[in-house]
Amino acid sequence: MKEIISTCPRTNSNKKEFEFLAKHYGLKYSEKFPQNQGFTSDEMIKQIKEASICIIGDDKIDQKVLKECLNLEYIIKWGSGTDKIDIESANKNGVEVFNTPEILGKYVAEFVLGLMIDSYRKITLNHKKMNEKIWYKSYGKSLFNRVIGFYGYGDIAKSLTKILKPFNCEIIYSDLNDLNIQGATFMSLKSVIKKSEILIVCAPLTEATMGSINKESLEHAELLELLINVSRGEIIKESEIIEMISDGSLKSLCLDVYEKEPPKLKEEVLNNGNILFTSHNASNTIDANEEVNKVILNKLDEILGD
């Protein structure tokens, strides 16, 4: 019997629908979830050896996996990022790859708004002080009228720009090309870094973007108060950026993604009140899960109904 295997925990909220659809087409459906952010390629071989269709999260699919998993016909990426899938090798092996783009951007944008307000108004820091029984009066800053820069102007940036309209912020961005976005100004990355008060990293991980946000590239970021990364951890040089927080050359930092997930962070870093850490969770809502799972169910129905 052919099998659909999900290694993405976010399918679980619609497990009954996945099981029903699989049964309708005479297939078995099962879920095998990683303890951490995703399975390594060696782990994936063990998990999806029998799969004809796999639904994956942040799991590694490389040439080795494709060579060993000979039953595999389709890979469906939960979400948009396919940087951990060797698409070229998949195509050579006759395995079709699908993803679910332009869905999660609005949910990540909502989360980023929360990070910005929390960082500027010191909400989490105030909460920690209250837990310590300290009546702490933090001096926060307002989000109104700030210059907000985007590194990568895709679905997340577009959604956040709409959300930010009432705050009367100036929106600037760097992307591969000028996208002629109304209400947003295209600039070089160097100019975006120099002019931004808040810099949001939401570019895809490529050879060009890997490690591009580092101490050297932020050297002339005199106005930068807050750096947020909700894309891929490898885009920033994590140790260098955290060092900038420690020496005061960068005021605040929010990280939802890391070079290695989960990260191994020193106690003094974890306790730094100028850094907000979250667990690669920016798009994770009940609503987002429902919306993406429905798209995947429709794609499965389309694939299996042919």
What does this structure look like?
The chain is of the alpha/beta class and 306 residues long. It has two domains: 3-100 and 285-305, Rossmann fold; 105-277, Rossmann fold. Helix content is 34%, strand content 15%. It is built from eleven helices and twelve strands. The strands form two sheets. Strands 8-7-6-9-10-11-12 form a seven-stranded parallel beta sheet, sandwiched between helices. A five-stranded parallel beta sheet has the order 2-1-3-4-5. Strand 10, helix 9 (238-246) and strand 11 form a beta-alpha-beta unit. The longest helix is centred in the C-terminal third of the chain and has 20 residues, at 286-305. It is elongated and about 60 Å long. The mean pLDDT is 96.
